[in-house]
């Protein structure tokens, strides 16, 4: 036998929770519940459009503020034609029908930990917080003659502290209308078997006369790994998945920071990098250096001339400033946090930037296997060599322990005689057969005058004195005749050694032995590194071999169980894709972050629907393997007469 269970949503948002409740199928022996959505009401037109897209039911766009709250929040009087919403408007939004389940998810910004305590106390956010109490009053008055069986009030956990006085008033209001209310806490990720941990506050109230049956806690499921969900999706940026799967444009400095964040950690891992004199001691990015590009001055140095084009990329217009405290700048909140591929995420919130939380993932699916697995490989002396190929740079080197010198080499050959000691016997060998070097202390400030070390003589001048040391005098000359000996048959005439190809030209045939010093195998690349604040999409492979990148909007929808890649696999191949209303990624992310996960809503609706069916069948008790819905330190959720269990 089929029995309809109606549900209505106040502050409905995008309707993700409503869609989840529609999927619920509560059952008891002999009776099956069919969830019927009566609609929703919200102030956001884009959210209302999504509500209709996900549920197929109309959502009413209506401001639920009182006039006083409107003025406090917006700082101005409402426009002409604006009227306060009344209980009759709530009944009209439900199509004149009475719901059996009422779900409220009031605005939570004023209660969120992302908002400072001082700002939460301002008139603007206090008016937003008061909307929770007004919304509950409107719902109670709308159906006071025939009360709703079960009411769910969901919000952020911090409402239990920041909104304590509002919750106390709501509980008193519910009791006045005949409800028994319990405050609980749950993890939506465990209720829906999601790949994110989403701790939420939930106040659940049952009408004492209409629902005498217990409402049991939904079964808890283990959290899934991020990669288990994302691994079934197209790679980010793949157009087959639609525009919501595009990679966010981030500043260059953000990409670099993400690349250095350890997987499973956040911005605090950047503090473990070795920084010396304002530079990363163990890493360096080396662009083509021109005109002092990317030059950094020490805090104790003086700067050069300040030019008109004083950008970091075209001169030394940067400073190594030691006065920087990352902890003070980023505070907390796991800024630049990177999730492991095999771990679950935290709560998906409306704030979605990589610098605002752990909204990036260490994605192992980059361009295939790691490079240099064979190229530039050095084979151990006792190991077998790799296959000999035509290319000369693929693992054809050996670590040869045979230096050729006996153990006594440094006692006689290559010996350096102390300045005050007599030299050893002079032999016929030019080098390597005796102590024919001396430790000469006469370096000093005038060494260049004595030896002229590394001096290059002009072509039209005389040379310095010729002395015995082959690196201690002017044994170089600036010869103006570089092309005089270039005739047919000369090896360097046509081979293009150290040749540099122009960016807008083509190159010759690529040979198996192509290297920078045996042909035109270099290019004049005009592309410099981007500026620190330049917005772009990068693929920087981190030290752990994965691509540390932000979640795409579509991936956040998948983590919220709003989007299932398996359901859209066929459609995406045909050019169709999942799309929310509008073109703004930030608006999509805010609505996704504010939503109750679809699978978690379904799990809650099935347990509540089962209790309603039991009450309709005249039963007040059912044996269950799951506990009565409680939080870890709370008493039972639903008991006859409101007494503890």
Automatic annotation (TrEMBL):
<keyword id="KW-0808">Transferase</keyword>
<keyword id="KW-0489">Methyltransferase</keyword>
<feature type="region of interest" description="Disordered">
    <location>
        <begin position="346"/>
        <end position="369"/>
    </location>
</feature>
<dbReference type="GO" id="GO:0003886">
    <property type="term" value="F:DNA (cytosine-5-)-methyltransferase activity"/>
</dbReference>
<protein>
    <submittedName>
        <fullName>Uncharacterized protein</fullName>
    </submittedName>
</protein>
<dbReference type="GO" id="GO:0032259">
    <property type="term" value="P:methylation"/>
</dbReference>
<keyword id="KW-0680">Restriction system</keyword>
<dbReference type="GO" id="GO:0009307">
    <property type="term" value="P:DNA restriction-modification system"/>
</dbReference>
<dbReference type="InterPro" id="IPR029063">
    <property type="entry name" value="SAM-dependent_MTases_sf"/>
</dbReference>
<dbReference type="InterPro" id="IPR001525">
    <property type="entry name" value="C5_MeTfrase"/>
</dbReference>
<dbReference type="Pfam" id="PF00145">
    <property type="entry name" value="DNA_methylase"/>
</dbReference>
């Amino acid at each position: 036998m089929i029995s309809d269970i109606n549900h209505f949503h106040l502050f409905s948002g995008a309707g993700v929770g409503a869609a989840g409740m529609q999927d619920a199928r509560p059952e008891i022996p002999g009776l099956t519940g069919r969830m019927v959505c009566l609609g929703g009401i919200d102030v956001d037109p884009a959210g209302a459009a999504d509500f209709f897209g996900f549920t197929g039911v109309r959502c009413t766009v209506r401001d639920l503020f009182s006039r006083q709250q409107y003025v406090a929040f917006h700082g101005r009087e409402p426009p002409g034609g604006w009227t306060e919403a009344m209980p009759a408007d709530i009944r009209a939004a439900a199509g004149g029908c009475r719901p059996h389940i009422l779900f409220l998810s009031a605005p939570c910004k004023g209660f969120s930990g992302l908002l400072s305590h001082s700002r939460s106390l301002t008139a603007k956010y206090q008016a937003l917080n008061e909307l929770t109490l007004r919304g509950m009053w409107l719902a109670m008055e709308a159906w006071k003659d025939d009360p709703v069986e079960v009411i769910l009030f969901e919000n952020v956990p911090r409402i239990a502290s920041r909104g304590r006085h509002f919750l106390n008033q709501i509980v008193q209001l519910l009791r006045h209308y005949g409800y028994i209310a319990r405050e609980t806490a749950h993890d939506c990720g465990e209720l829906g078997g999601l790949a994110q941990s989403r701790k939420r506050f939930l106040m659940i109230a049952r009408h004492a006369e209409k629902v005498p049956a217990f409402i049991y806690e939904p079964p808890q499921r283990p959290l899934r790994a991020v990669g288990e969900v994302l691994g079934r999706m197209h790679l980010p940026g793949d157009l087959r998945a639609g525009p919501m799967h595009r990679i966010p444009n981030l500043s260059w400095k953000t990409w670099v920071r993400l690349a250095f964040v350890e997987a499973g950690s956040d911005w605090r891992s950047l503090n473990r990098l070795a920084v010396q004199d304002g530079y990363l001691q163990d890493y360096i990015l080396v662009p083509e250096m021109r005109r002092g590009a990317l030059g950094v001055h020490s805090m104790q140095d003086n700067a050069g001339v300040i030019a008109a084009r004083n950008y970091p990329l075209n001169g030394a217009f940067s400073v190594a400033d030691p006065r920087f405290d990352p902890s003070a700048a980023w505070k907390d909140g796991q800024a630049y946090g990177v999730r492991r591929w095999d771990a679950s995420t935290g709560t998906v919130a409306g704030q979605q930037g990589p610098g605002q939380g752990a909204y990036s993932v260490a994605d192992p699916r980059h361009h295939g296997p790691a490079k240099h697995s064979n190229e530039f490989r050095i084979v151990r002396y006792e190991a077998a060599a790799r296959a000999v190929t035509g290319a000369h740079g693929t693992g054809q080197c050996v670590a040869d322990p045979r230096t050729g010198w006996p153990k006594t080499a440094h006692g006689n050959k290559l010996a350096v005689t102390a300045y005050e000691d007599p030299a050893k016997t002079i032999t016929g060998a030019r080098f390597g057969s005796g102590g024919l070097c001396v430790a000469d202390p006469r370096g000093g400030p005038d060494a260049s005058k004595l030896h002229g070390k590394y001096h290059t003589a002009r072509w039209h001048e005389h040379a310095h004195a010729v002395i015995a040391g082959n690196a201690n005098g002017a044994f170089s000359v600036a010869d103006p005749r570089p092309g005089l000996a270039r005739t047919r048959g000369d090896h360097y005439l046509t081979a293009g050694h150290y040749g540099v190809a122009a960016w807008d030209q083509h190159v010759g045939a690529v040979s198996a032995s192509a290297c920078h010093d045996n042909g035109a195998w270099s290019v004049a690349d005009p592309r410099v590194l981007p500026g620190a604040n330049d917005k772009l999409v990068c693929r920087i492979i981190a030290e752990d071999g994965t691509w540390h990148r932000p979640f795409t909007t579509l991936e956040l929808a998948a983590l919220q169980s709003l989007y299932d890649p398996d359901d859209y696999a066929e459609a995406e191949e045909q050019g169709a894709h999942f799309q929310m209303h509008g073109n703004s990624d930030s608006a999509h992310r805010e609505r996704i972050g504010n939503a109750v996960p679809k699978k978690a809503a379904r799990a809650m609706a099935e347990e509540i629907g089962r209790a309603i069916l039991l009450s309709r069948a005249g039963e007040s008790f059912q044996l269950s393997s799951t506990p009565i819905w409680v939080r870890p330190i709370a008493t039972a959720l639903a008991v006859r007469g409101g007494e503890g269990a």
